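pls design
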């Protein structure tokens, strides 16, 4: 069952490639609207917050895996710390697992972003991912870039891979 869910999550992500917020730079996007309509009330206003996490939540929901509210993914640091405490992190990510990023290039040592793992390009070095609220290239904001894009990422920017699918029953 988990393989089918993982494939459905990835298929949804691929279907969403190129989706952008409107107007540009606003963080107004359908994923935030739906996330809050489903009862997730972390912030008071869903309209203008970064949406990498709500994109991941939507992909999981559309793929047939509803993430329980206690594991909400909108606020990425919370996702990271809960996954770490519950031992949901993994060194062997599978299609559809979450990736939590801390981009080395921004020199801020803060948890920056979340996306969905595709496959290894070079095992334990580089991989594909689909992310919401990133830029289409290496230029521009990697964690608040305004669109859904497929990316090539490297391990130097990964804080953790998170496997919710096999760990939440």
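designed seq:
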């Amino acid at each position: 069952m988990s393989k089918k869910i993982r494939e459905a999550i990835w298929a949804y992500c691929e279907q969403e490639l190129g989706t952008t917020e409107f107007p540009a730079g606003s963080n107004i996007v359908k994923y935030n609207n739906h996330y809050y309509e489903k009862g997730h009330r972390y912030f008071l206003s869903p309209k203008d917050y970064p949406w990498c996490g709500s994109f991941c939540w939507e992909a999981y929901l559309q793929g047939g895996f509803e993430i329980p509210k206690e594991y909400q993914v909108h606020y990425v640091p919370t996702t990271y710390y809960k996954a770490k405490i519950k031992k949901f992190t993994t060194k062997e990510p599978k299609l559809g697992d979450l990736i939590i990023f801390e981009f080395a290039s921004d020199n801020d040592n803060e948890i920056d972003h979340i996306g969905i793992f595709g496959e290894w390009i070079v095992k334990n070095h580089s991989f594909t991912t689909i992310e919401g609220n990133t830029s289409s290239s290496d230029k521009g904001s990697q964690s608040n870039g305004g669109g859904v894009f497929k990316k090539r990422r490297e391990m130097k920017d990964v804080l953790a891979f998170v496997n919710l699918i096999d760990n939440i029953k």
